[in-house]
Design a protein that fits this description.
246 residues, alpha/beta, Rossmann fold, 7-stranded mixed beta sheet, 9 strands
């Protein structure tokens, strides 16, 4: 694959360094939960924004246009999250969902890793970029339907054997959450290694067509039927601890 000319990369770097963006990116953080299959326990997911047309444009530009400056602008959005972490993270680490090696080589960067580094600085948490690895290639999620995304293999990820942090608590980080299947596979891989997953943070959340209206509603309904249990559900108990704190 031909290398990107150095002049455009230099211009992109200078644009990022000076803080120049096409337009300010709006955010509206929120929190939801969905159950893990292997344990049945809920996984809290804190998100920076819903997947609006605006943030979709920037994510597509960063990932599929290999625009590092836009990727760094997106990474800075992690600083819009509350400064008070909604989990007891003493001794815990931030771990990004790992990349597909071929796509990493093509882009030259991994957006979830950039998000993780900025979040680590924002929350003053230790980052472990190599805590998980992808054991084989998989189709790009952006090209798959919601139903196809839900069929992701449970053993797609594994905790790295060289990591000395496998048995520690972690918070996972990813760029986009649509069905939660990728985060679920990553969380269950970490749990199989003997570690604990406190929760996850994503840049953008894609609501299901039947999701509740935007804004923090009441908590999840009680007595959910089996047909409902695999859908991400709104949950506000943790968010109430951080609402209004920036």
């Amino acid at each position: 694959m031909p290398k990107t000319p150095w002049r455009p990369r230099l211009r992109a770097f200078l644009r990022w360094l000076s803080g120049v963006t096409d337009t300010p990116i709006s955010t509206e953080p929120g929190l939801l939960t969905f159950p893990l299959i292997e344990t049945g326990s809920p996984l809290p997911v804190l998100y920076v924004s819903r997947y609006t047309d605006e943030i979709s444009h920037h994510i597509h530009r960063a990932k599929y246009g290999a625009d590092w400056a836009t990727a760094m602008t997106l990474a800075r959005l992690m600083q819009s999250l509350p400064t008070v972490v909604p989990w007891d993270t003493q001794g815990a680490r931030l771990v990004p969902v790992p990349p597909d090696p071929e796509r990493l080589r093509a882009r030259g960067f991994h957006l979830p890793a950039l998000l993780t580094k900025n979040l680590g600085s924002h929350w003053q948490m230790t980052v472990s970029l190599g805590g998980l690895k992808k054991v084989r290639a998989s189709p790009e999620q952006a090209k798959r339907s919601r139903q196809e995304r839900q069929a992701i293999d449970a053993d797609l990820f594994t905790a790295t054997g060289r990591s000395q942090y496998q048995r520690q608590a972690v918070v996972l980080v990813d760029d986009v959450m649509t069905t939660g299947a990728t985060l679920r596979a990553a969380a269950e891989a970490w749990q199989r290694s003997g570690g604990q997953v406190l929760g996850a943070v994503v840049l953008a959340y894609v609501p299901a067509p039947d999701s509740p209206p935007q804004g923090p509603p009441g908590g999840p309904s009680q007595g959910a039927s089996p047909a409902q249990v695999d859908k991400p559900r709104w949950h506000t108990a943790l968010w109430e601890r951080t609402e209004g704190i920036r």
